[in-house]
Amino acid sequence: MILTIDHGPVRELRLNRPPANALSPELITVLKQAVEAAPQEGVRGLVLSGSPGRFSGGLDVPLLLTLDRATMNGVWRDFYGLLRTLACSPVPIAAAITGHAPAGGTVLALFCDWRIAAGGDWKIGLNEVQVGLPLPPVIYSALQRLVGARQAARLAVGGLLVSPAESLSLGLVDEVVPAEQVVERAVKWCQEWLALPSVAMTRTRREARADLTALFEQNLPGEVEEISGWWWDEQVQSVLRSLVERLAKKKQAG
Q1: Helices 220-231 and 137-147 meet at what angle, rounded to 10?
Q2: pLDDT digits (tens, 9 = 90+) for 156-180
Q3: Which CATH superfamily is domain 2-216 in?
Q4: Please, how many CA atoms are within 13 Å of residue 81, restricted to the half-sphere of its CB?
Q5: Cβ density class 168-190: b for 16+ within 10 Å, e for less
Q6: Side-chain half-sphere exposure of 222, counting CA atoms within 13 A
Q7: Under 8 Å CB-to-CB from 30, ≥6 apart: which residues?
Protein backbone atom coordinates (compact mmCIF):
# COMPACT_ATOMS: atom_id res chain seq x y z
CA MET A 1 0.00 0.00 0.00
CA ILE A 2 3.04 2.28 0.31
CA LEU A 3 6.03 2.36 -2.01
CA THR A 4 9.25 3.44 -0.28
CA ILE A 5 11.73 5.26 -2.50
CA ASP A 6 14.91 6.72 -1.01
CA HIS A 7 16.41 9.86 -2.55
CA GLY A 8 19.59 10.00 -0.47
CA PRO A 9 18.60 11.19 3.02
CA VAL A 10 15.07 11.99 1.82
CA ARG A 11 12.52 9.17 1.73
CA GLU A 12 9.46 9.25 -0.49
CA LEU A 13 6.40 7.44 0.86
CA ARG A 14 4.15 6.93 -2.17
CA LEU A 15 0.54 5.92 -1.52
CA ASN A 16 -0.20 2.86 -3.63
CA ARG A 17 -3.76 1.73 -3.09
CA PRO A 18 -5.50 1.90 -6.48
CA PRO A 19 -7.64 3.29 -7.85
CA ALA A 20 -7.90 6.38 -5.62
CA ASN A 21 -5.43 5.85 -2.77
CA ALA A 22 -8.42 6.01 -0.45
CA LEU A 23 -7.56 5.77 3.23
CA SER A 24 -8.57 2.36 4.54
CA PRO A 25 -7.91 1.29 8.15
CA GLU A 26 -4.88 -0.69 6.97
CA LEU A 27 -3.42 2.17 4.93
CA ILE A 28 -3.85 4.56 7.86
CA THR A 29 -1.93 2.14 10.08
CA VAL A 30 0.91 1.40 7.68
CA LEU A 31 1.39 5.08 6.79
CA LYS A 32 1.63 6.03 10.45
CA GLN A 33 4.18 3.25 11.00
CA ALA A 34 6.21 4.34 7.97
CA VAL A 35 6.36 7.98 9.09
CA GLU A 36 7.39 6.95 12.60
CA ALA A 37 10.02 4.47 11.40
CA ALA A 38 11.78 6.75 8.91
CA PRO A 39 13.74 8.96 11.38
CA GLN A 40 14.78 5.87 13.34
CA GLU A 41 16.29 4.50 10.12
CA GLY A 42 18.39 7.59 9.50
CA VAL A 43 15.97 9.36 7.15
CA ARG A 44 16.27 13.14 7.50
CA GLY A 45 13.35 14.28 5.35
CA LEU A 46 10.10 12.81 4.01
CA VAL A 47 8.01 13.28 0.89
CA LEU A 48 4.42 12.04 0.94
CA SER A 49 3.22 11.43 -2.62
CA GLY A 50 0.51 9.63 -4.56
CA SER A 51 -0.04 8.26 -8.04
CA PRO A 52 -0.22 10.48 -11.13
CA GLY A 53 -3.54 12.31 -11.10
CA ARG A 54 -4.55 11.00 -7.69
CA PHE A 55 -2.88 11.98 -4.44
CA SER A 56 -5.58 10.51 -2.21
CA GLY A 57 -9.35 10.31 -2.44
CA GLY A 58 -9.69 10.65 1.32
CA LEU A 59 -11.33 8.15 3.63
CA ASP A 60 -12.59 4.98 1.96
CA VAL A 61 -16.24 5.68 2.77
CA PRO A 62 -17.72 2.59 1.05
CA LEU A 63 -15.44 0.36 3.11
CA LEU A 64 -15.91 2.29 6.36
CA LEU A 65 -19.71 2.08 6.10
CA THR A 66 -19.41 -1.71 6.41
CA LEU A 67 -17.67 -1.52 9.80
CA ASP A 68 -19.37 -1.85 13.17
CA ARG A 69 -19.33 0.89 15.79
CA ALA A 70 -16.40 -0.43 17.84
CA THR A 71 -14.22 -0.94 14.78
CA MET A 72 -15.10 2.46 13.34
CA ASN A 73 -14.31 4.17 16.63
CA GLY A 74 -10.88 2.57 16.44
CA VAL A 75 -10.43 3.90 12.90
CA TRP A 76 -11.03 7.44 14.09
CA ARG A 77 -8.48 7.00 16.87
CA ASP A 78 -5.95 5.66 14.40
CA PHE A 79 -6.62 8.48 11.93
CA TYR A 80 -6.02 11.08 14.61
CA GLY A 81 -2.89 9.17 15.56
CA LEU A 82 -1.67 9.45 11.97
CA LEU A 83 -2.29 13.20 11.91
CA ARG A 84 -0.46 13.60 15.19
CA THR A 85 2.48 11.60 13.83
CA LEU A 86 2.68 13.89 10.80
CA ALA A 87 2.39 17.04 12.91
CA CYS A 88 5.00 15.91 15.42
CA SER A 89 7.48 14.39 12.98
CA PRO A 90 11.05 15.25 13.99
CA VAL A 91 12.01 15.54 10.29
CA PRO A 92 10.54 17.87 7.65
CA ILE A 93 7.74 16.48 5.49
CA ALA A 94 6.77 17.79 2.05
CA ALA A 95 3.46 16.75 0.51
CA ALA A 96 3.79 16.12 -3.24
CA ILE A 97 0.13 16.47 -4.21
CA THR A 98 0.18 14.51 -7.45
CA GLY A 99 -3.48 15.04 -8.38
CA HIS A 100 -6.93 15.02 -6.82
CA ALA A 101 -6.87 15.43 -3.04
CA PRO A 102 -10.40 15.81 -1.67
CA ALA A 103 -11.20 15.60 2.04
CA GLY A 104 -8.71 13.26 3.73
CA GLY A 105 -6.20 13.81 0.93
CA THR A 106 -6.01 17.50 1.78
CA VAL A 107 -6.09 16.67 5.49
CA LEU A 108 -2.83 14.72 5.19
CA ALA A 109 -1.19 17.66 3.44
CA LEU A 110 -2.32 20.15 6.11
CA PHE A 111 -0.12 18.47 8.69
CA CYS A 112 3.01 18.41 6.54
CA ASP A 113 5.58 21.24 6.50
CA TRP A 114 5.20 22.19 2.83
CA ARG A 115 2.68 21.44 0.11
CA ILE A 116 3.58 21.25 -3.60
CA ALA A 117 0.71 20.59 -5.99
CA ALA A 118 0.85 19.27 -9.53
CA GLY A 119 -0.59 21.71 -12.03
CA GLY A 120 -3.62 20.31 -13.82
CA ASP A 121 -7.36 19.83 -13.68
CA TRP A 122 -7.33 18.52 -10.11
CA LYS A 123 -9.43 19.40 -7.08
CA ILE A 124 -8.09 20.09 -3.61
CA GLY A 125 -10.03 20.93 -0.47
CA LEU A 126 -12.08 19.82 2.49
CA ASN A 127 -15.48 18.82 1.17
CA GLU A 128 -16.61 17.01 4.32
CA VAL A 129 -19.70 19.21 4.76
CA GLN A 130 -20.79 18.39 1.21
CA VAL A 131 -20.89 14.70 2.10
CA GLY A 132 -22.62 15.20 5.44
CA LEU A 133 -19.72 15.26 7.91
CA PRO A 134 -18.86 18.20 10.17
CA LEU A 135 -15.20 19.20 9.87
CA PRO A 136 -13.37 18.07 13.04
CA PRO A 137 -11.94 20.91 15.18
CA VAL A 138 -8.30 19.77 14.91
CA ILE A 139 -8.54 19.72 11.14
CA TYR A 140 -10.34 23.07 11.00
CA SER A 141 -7.61 24.63 13.16
CA ALA A 142 -4.90 23.25 10.86
CA LEU A 143 -6.73 24.72 7.86
CA GLN A 144 -7.13 28.10 9.56
CA ARG A 145 -3.42 28.10 10.39
CA LEU A 146 -2.66 28.07 6.67
CA VAL A 147 -5.31 30.24 5.05
CA GLY A 148 -6.57 32.51 7.85
CA ALA A 149 -9.96 32.76 9.53
CA ARG A 150 -12.06 34.16 6.68
CA GLN A 151 -10.91 31.77 3.97
CA ALA A 152 -11.01 28.81 6.36
CA ALA A 153 -14.67 29.54 7.05
CA ARG A 154 -15.45 29.89 3.33
CA LEU A 155 -13.66 26.69 2.36
CA ALA A 156 -14.76 24.53 5.27
CA VAL A 157 -18.39 25.57 5.73
CA GLY A 158 -19.00 25.44 1.98
CA GLY A 159 -17.09 22.19 1.64
CA LEU A 160 -15.35 23.70 -1.38
CA LEU A 161 -12.98 21.95 -3.74
CA VAL A 162 -10.66 24.29 -5.63
CA SER A 163 -8.04 24.11 -8.36
CA PRO A 164 -4.29 23.99 -7.65
CA ALA A 165 -4.02 27.60 -8.87
CA GLU A 166 -6.70 28.83 -6.46
CA SER A 167 -5.20 26.69 -3.68
CA LEU A 168 -1.92 28.53 -4.23
CA SER A 169 -3.57 31.95 -4.14
CA LEU A 170 -5.29 31.05 -0.85
CA GLY A 171 -2.17 29.60 0.79
CA LEU A 172 -3.68 26.13 0.93
CA VAL A 173 -0.65 24.93 -1.03
CA ASP A 174 2.77 26.56 -1.22
CA GLU A 175 3.81 25.81 -4.80
CA VAL A 176 2.31 24.58 -8.05
CA VAL A 177 4.65 22.92 -10.57
CA PRO A 178 4.17 20.78 -13.71
CA ALA A 179 2.86 17.35 -12.80
CA GLU A 180 6.00 15.54 -13.93
CA GLN A 181 8.11 17.69 -11.59
CA VAL A 182 6.05 17.57 -8.38
CA VAL A 183 7.95 14.77 -6.61
CA GLU A 184 11.31 16.07 -7.79
CA ARG A 185 10.49 19.52 -6.43
CA ALA A 186 9.31 18.09 -3.10
CA VAL A 187 12.58 16.18 -2.72
CA LYS A 188 14.54 19.32 -3.57
CA TRP A 189 12.59 21.33 -1.00
CA CYS A 190 13.56 18.80 1.69
CA GLN A 191 17.18 18.92 0.55
CA GLU A 192 17.20 22.71 0.80
CA TRP A 193 16.10 22.56 4.43
CA LEU A 194 18.55 19.75 5.20
CA ALA A 195 21.39 21.89 3.83
CA LEU A 196 20.80 24.40 6.62
CA PRO A 197 22.70 24.13 9.93
CA SER A 198 20.88 21.19 11.47
CA VAL A 199 20.53 22.31 15.09
CA ALA A 200 19.32 25.77 14.16
CA MET A 201 16.88 24.44 11.56
CA THR A 202 15.47 21.72 13.79
CA ARG A 203 14.92 23.92 16.81
CA THR A 204 13.40 26.76 14.79
CA ARG A 205 11.15 24.34 12.92
CA ARG A 206 9.96 22.96 16.23
CA GLU A 207 9.04 26.46 17.38
CA ALA A 208 7.32 27.24 14.06
CA ARG A 209 5.14 24.14 14.38
CA ALA A 210 4.42 24.44 18.10
CA ASP A 211 0.90 25.71 17.46
CA LEU A 212 0.21 22.71 15.22
CA THR A 213 1.54 20.10 17.63
CA ALA A 214 -0.32 21.81 20.50
CA LEU A 215 -3.61 20.91 18.82
CA PHE A 216 -3.01 17.32 19.88
CA GLU A 217 -2.57 18.22 23.52
CA GLN A 218 -5.99 19.80 23.96
CA ASN A 219 -8.78 17.41 25.01
CA LEU A 220 -8.03 15.09 22.11
CA PRO A 221 -9.76 11.96 23.52
CA GLY A 222 -12.95 13.96 23.92
CA GLU A 223 -12.77 15.21 20.35
CA VAL A 224 -12.20 11.74 18.93
CA GLU A 225 -15.19 10.48 20.89
CA GLU A 226 -17.30 13.34 19.55
CA ILE A 227 -16.26 12.66 15.94
CA SER A 228 -17.06 8.98 16.41
CA GLY A 229 -20.55 9.98 17.51
CA TRP A 230 -21.03 12.21 14.47
CA TRP A 231 -20.29 9.30 12.16
CA TRP A 232 -23.32 7.38 13.44
CA ASP A 233 -25.75 10.30 13.20
CA GLU A 234 -28.76 9.26 11.14
CA GLN A 235 -28.47 12.17 8.69
CA VAL A 236 -24.72 11.65 8.23
CA GLN A 237 -25.22 7.96 7.50
CA SER A 238 -27.99 8.74 5.03
CA VAL A 239 -25.91 11.28 3.11
CA LEU A 240 -22.87 9.00 3.04
CA ARG A 241 -24.86 6.03 1.79
CA SER A 242 -26.43 8.16 -0.94
CA LEU A 243 -22.93 9.23 -1.94
CA VAL A 244 -21.76 5.63 -2.16
CA GLU A 245 -24.78 4.72 -4.29
CA ARG A 246 -24.07 7.59 -6.70
CA LEU A 247 -20.42 6.57 -6.98
CA ALA A 248 -21.42 2.96 -7.67
CA LYS A 249 -23.83 4.02 -10.43
CA LYS A 250 -21.20 6.30 -11.94
CA LYS A 251 -18.70 3.45 -11.94
CA GLN A 252 -21.20 1.12 -13.62
CA ALA A 253 -22.04 3.73 -16.24
CA GLY A 254 -18.36 4.29 -16.94
Answers
A1: 110
A2: 999 999 999 999 999 999 999 999 9
A3: 2-enoyl-CoA Hydratase; Chain A, domain 1 (3.90.226.10)
A4: 16
A5: bebebbbbbbebeebbebbbebb
A6: 5
A7: 1, 2
Cross-sheet strand order for the sheet of 10-15:
2-7, 10-15, 45-49, 93-97, 114-118, 175-177
CA 159 to each of CA 9, 120, 122, 134, 197: distance values in angstroms, whole numbers, following the listed order: 37, 21, 16, 10, 41
CA dihedral (152, 78, 99, 230) in degrees, to 10, reads -50
Backbone angles phi, psi at 102, to 5 degrees: -75, 155
pLDDT, tens only, 2-56: 999 999 999 999 999 999 999 999 999 999 999 999 999 999 999 999 999 999 9
Q: What's the Cα-to-Cα distance from 145 to each of 28, 80, 175, 186, rounded to whole Å?
A: 24, 18, 17, 21
Give the residue from 219, 252, 243, 182 showing the smallest Cα distance to 59: 243
**Domain boundaries along the sequence of the chain:** 2-216
Residue 153 CA to residue 196 CA, distance in Å, equals: 36
Q: How far apart are CA 162 and CA 178, in angstroms?
A: 17
Residue 181 CB partners (closer than 8 Å, separation 6+): none
Distance CA 25, CA 60 (A): 9
What is the C-alpha separation between 27 and 15, in angstroms, rounded?
Answer: 8
